[in-house]
Amino acid sequence: MKLDYDPIPVLESVGYTEREAAFLYLVAVHSGYFLRRQYGRFVHRERGAIAEQLLRKAAALGHIQSVACGQSRFVYHLASQEVYSAVGLATSRHRRLKGDGQIKCRLMVLDFVLDHLGEAILDSGEAKLDFFTVTLGLSATLFTQSGAGSTRFFPEEFPILAGEQQQIRFTFFEEGALSTSAFESFLRRYRAVFAALSSFELLYFADSDRNFERAAKIFAALYPETRALGITLMTPRGVDHFLDYLRARENNDTEKRSVTLRDLEILREGEPIYTTLEHEAFCAAWKVGSTTAEKIRGRFQQQGPRAKLTTIALPYHYPIYQFKRERIAEPGLGSSGGTGRLSLFAKEVIRKQLLGEGGA
Prior knowledge:
By secondary structure, the protein is of the alpha+beta class. It has helices at 7-12, 18-30, 36-42, 49-60, 81-86, 100-115, 125-135, 181-196, 212-222, 239-254, 261-270, 277-288, 293-300; strands at residues 33-34, 64-70, 73-78, 121-122, 144-147, 150-153, 160-162, 168-173, 199-206, 306-313, 326-328, 341-343, 350-351. The strands form 4 sheets. A 5-stranded mixed β-sheet has the order 4-7-8-9-10. Strands 1-3-2-13 form a 4-stranded antiparallel β-sheet. Strands 5-6 form a two-stranded antiparallel sheet. The protein is elongated and about 85 Å long. Mean pLDDT is 80; it is low at 323-359.
């Protein structure tokens, strides 16, 4: 995000220390929500009065609201329009009251940011669009997301790491749902972007490994240009399928060994696919032993971007899913209107608190 001023002194001017102002800036940019322990991590203090000082000060200034999760645990919502305006984010959606899963997701994003403070983080839609269109030269149309009469870029607001030599690491944060439909939608939304890159890594974060295997399968199925699969126009079912076809055809033509039912199935699938002169050349070379599986993999696995999915279980605790009660959203807490009933909280627990004992 580009500003023509330093927002930290602006926040200091109302009474925050430099460290407090810097932390609130990170919260405003990346999450809108935070936990007491996250500020402790930021200042390298696990416990003590230092977090209490920030919470009392921010509450007295009317900048935060506390969300009670039960058992004296709280999530803190930076809801002040003044703070967001001070850091150049007057229209930020982070100040709106969110659902339980969304709050947890934003807390996970903040933990990720705290883990990568020394790295180049693309922290806003403007910064991301500038990097991909100006630095990498991609078309802005790849990033267009239309909805509600407007065009939005990077609507999920997940950070992206831009490393040396244009190494790009996208992020996806799982809220804890049983379904992986949100991840599937994310992959479809960015498929054209991924295909335009020579290489990238996608970091899949969750607080449990429950969906990791399923996410890996979805990544492989919905992003067929991955280097690992070697799926191209010539090998639409992947390089392994083509290799199986070569072996089955060799068995059928030379009778080196009996043809299996699997061989017959592969031949039936492959005959209408592997029909070009290059396919025939590979078949002939395979038959006489002048090519190998390694050479063929090298030929086709280079066609797509070098894509990698890394699944990571965050080692942090998020109290918001632990206390399954109901809540009724109250007006004036950052929402833009009536929000209806939401699960996982007790009734009437979203309110201003005297920030005393037991924050999460």
